[in-house]
Write a structure and sequence with these properties.
Low-confidence stretches: 1-8
Radius of gyration: 18 Å
Helix content: 25-40%
Shape: globular
Number of strands: 8
Largest sheet: 8 strands, parallel
CATH superfamily: Ureohydrolase domain
Number of domains: 1
Bound molecules: manganese (II) ion
CATH architecture: 3-Layer(aba) Sandwich
Mean pLDDT: 95
Strand order of the largest sheet: 2-1-3-8-7-4-5-6
Length: about 325
């Protein structure tokens, strides 16, 4: 098959083939060989060398790809078809040269995402543990500090753990310190669970992040949380980081640090849909750990959240393409 033909193929057409056939790229999109021919790239980041508890998220991208073959093209609520708005493909996995040294592995991630971004392509990543978000945010540094919509059981603003400052519990603290993230345009949603110290929660609060613990989420309801998120993030560029452990383990058991009493899948979907029209520059779904996901449900949930976010990104990219043409 000609490479060019495969890129030109409309994914809406290829999605008419039986779902169980073919090589499972994300959402059955074409494999990207020339980034400049695409608007949005989905990228696997199979790295979990910075976890504090159970490893396994390194297997996330492969299982999410497999589960994502269930994702069709048209969104049932918004009727958005991301593939009619943008050229979308799968750029494969970050080709790691280092996996045993977290800081070197993070450099591999930054290098790969920089290449994609320099071709003018917006990235939607599938982790991997949450430490991967820091090296991705580093590739957005030229835009100045960005806003963040962060769904998670944990604030991930701890200072460090067991002698490392680059674990999956620290990315957003480092991102603030490195000037990548504007804490005043950051919302953290679904926070809960026991801690031995309140240091991470305190850091988020003291630096002006809007922290919505799960109890407040339930008290406010999803529509008010959407309004609050939009108010805090505003019109500036923003990144979505979706840690699957923000969901209740009933919905997403396959993750390294599960916390009971979390978001439902339908609330998370409604929340994401409420972010339409935001100025999004990139996103990730992280911490899907297939070894604890024997039924494959967490991978399906991860793929579904990626699809919801893909619709948002496609609309956001389409708007900025229109503005550039003016
Ligand atoms: Mn996290
Ligand atoms: Mn978490």
């Amino acid at each position: 098959m000609q490479e060019k033909d495969s890129i030109k193929r409309d994914p809406s057409e290829t999605m008419k083939a039986p779902k169980y056939m073919g090589i499972p790229t994300f959402m059955r999109t074409p494999l990207i060989t020339r980034p400049s021919e695409f608007d949005i790239a989905m990228i696997g980041v199979p790295y979990d060398g910075a976890v504090s508890n159970r490893p396994g998220a390194r297997h996330g991208p492969r299982e999410i790809r497999n589960a994502s073959t269930m994702m069709r093209s048209i969104h049932h609520v918004t009727r958005v078809n991301p593939y009619s708005l943008c050229r979308i493909g799968d750029a494969g996995d970050v080709p790691f040269e280092n996996v045993y040294d977290p800081e070197a592995a993070h450099q591999d991630i930054t290098q790969f995402f920089s290449r994609v971004h320099s071709a003018g392509v917006v990235a939607l990543a599938a982790g991997g543990d949450h430490s991967i978000t820091l090296p991705i945010l580093r590739t957005h540094a030229s835009k100045g500090p960005v806003g963040l919509i962060h769904i998670d059981a944990h604030t991930d603003t701890w200072d460090g753990s067991m002698g490392s400052k680059f674990t999956h519990g620290t990315p957003f603290r480092r991102a603030v310190e490195e000037g990548l993230l504007d804490p005043k345009r950051t919302v953290q949603i679904g926070i809960r669970g026991t801690q031995n110290t309140s240091e991470g929660w305190d850091y988020s609060h003291d630096n002006g992040m809007r922290v919505i613990f799960i109890e407040e989420f339930l008290r406010l309801g999803v529509q008010a949380v959407i309004a609050e998120t939009r108010r805090v993030v505003g019109k500036g560029p923003a990144y979505i980081s979706f840690d699957i452990d923000g969901l209740d383990p009933v919905y997403a058991p396959g993750t390294g640090t599960p916390e009971v009493g979390g978001l439902t899948t339908i609330d998370a979907q409604a929340l994401l849909r409420g972010l339409r029209g935001s100025n999004l520059i990139g996103a990730d779904v992280v911490e899907v750990a297939p070894p604890y996901d024997p039924r494959g449900n967490t991978a399906l949930v991860g793929a579904t959240m990626m699809y919801e976010i893909l619709c948002l990104l496609a609309e956001s990219v389409a708007v900025s393409k229109q503005e550039k043409q003016k």
